[in-house]
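# step 3/5: fold
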Amino acid sequence: MSEQQPPANNYSYNAYASNQAAAAPPAPVRPKQVDLGFWLLIAAAVVSAISIPVTIAWMDSAEFRDAIMSTSTGAITESDVDAIIAITAVTIIFFAAISIAIALLVALFIRKGHNWARIVATVFAALGIFGLTNLTMAGGLMAVLTVLSVLLPIVAVVMLWMKPSTEYFNGAKAYRQFKKYNPGA
């Protein structure tokens, strides 16, 4: 029988043969771009919350009621318009509350360095562009709130895809994986 010879090169085929754990990667330092993106997403959520009562007040205005009445064929009564406004207001409140909660949750996970949250924020920001289609109907404060609710997430997403941010998300992933597979380290 022949003896096993060590490999001719210096590479080890079993990195953990000496029973020493791998060194932990350093905890990533959050760059200012991620912090700014986080706060822009929080600001967008606040703008969305402010826009709820503004939208409901606009829907209760005479010009909105007249627009509904003029688009109907005459079969809509004043009480029907009240019912439409009430149902729409409840629907707006319900979906806005869910939307704001999701936006805040995504922002918190972005701050923790989770890349999936950055991707979700990117998709939401892209879909938010469709909110600009309502600018022709809205005026004044509603138009300003609409533009802000679209632009803030877009600027946040741009900040979150800059090089320092990407390095942070990659480092956070490596750090979490190390902690997951080396719980005592």
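# step 4/5: annotate
The mean pLDDT is 86.
# step 5/5: archive (pending)
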